[in-house]
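Supplementary Text 2. Reproducibility record for the structural model of the 322-residue chain.

All settings were left at their defaults, and a single model was retained for analysis rather than an ensemble. We include the record here because the model underlies the residue-level annotations in Supplementary Table 4.
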Amino acid sequence: MKKTVKLTALLLSLAMCLSLAACSNSSAGKDKKYVVGISQFVTHDALDAATNGFIDAMNDAFGEDGWEYDLQNAAEDSNMCSTIATTFVSQKVDLIMANATPALQAAAAATSDIPILGTSVTEYGVAFGIENFSGTLGNNVSGTSDLAPLDQQAQMIKDWYPEAKNIGLLYCSNEDNSQYQVDTVQGYLEGMGYTCKQYAFSDSNDIAAVCQTAADNSDVLYIPTDNKAAASTGIIDNICHGNIPVFCGEENICRGCGVATLSISYYDIGYKTGEMAAQILKGEAKVEEMAIQYAPEFTKKYNPAMCEALNIDVPEGYEAVG
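Retained model, structure tokens:
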């Protein structure tokens, strides 16, 4: 009888240990701390705002203690983007957020398994060489776009300078999305009767010379959403300030050297990317089924200092850049 009691007690004790272990494992699963790798191509206001929006959305979804991130900046070096992506893969992060096209392309080349979300990427079809892009990549990549309607950007120039004749399109030749934007805008502008010429620089070493040539031979300049231009607005402004109007694809370039822009909020698209990441990590959505998301609204903005320097009047419907 005593042996039976002892055996029963031992079995009960073992069952309780197993039950506690199971509860502990279950709790650990629920309390998993997600790790996200953030790869940002370069430091400038637009990309910084997108990263901040992403972090805020993730904090709202998980709390600051429910996830952690490793933020790496490639300092405008595409090779460094590849190194960062490879490091994230070796660390087995739960998700990669790639801020700007070179960071996204590098991440996609590094892994087909880890979910990747891009932001501040203009056109995903162009970034991945997909013709007739449907809006969903169907693999481990999705994200948000910073594209503002290009026909409306061209129309801005018409609204401000209907009598201009020569439009210079200034952009970085190493950014596929910049080429896409200037080609598209050029088509709209030529349809309005303007003569257009593209002026491409390869990096920060030749931007001053190319910009000077463009300014000398144009009535108006247009700069698309372009990371190298965004990081070099001081150089552009030194040449163009008070001499030639510059229309820009995004607000932060306009703030640095432009007259007007059709603006989106980079913080908002970054925040949306964070919301998408939370859905993936919580198992509420599959990255391969997620369509690319776009900014919900666009705002016409002007730079008061540039307008004053050029002594030009602002058309109705524009608000000053912050």
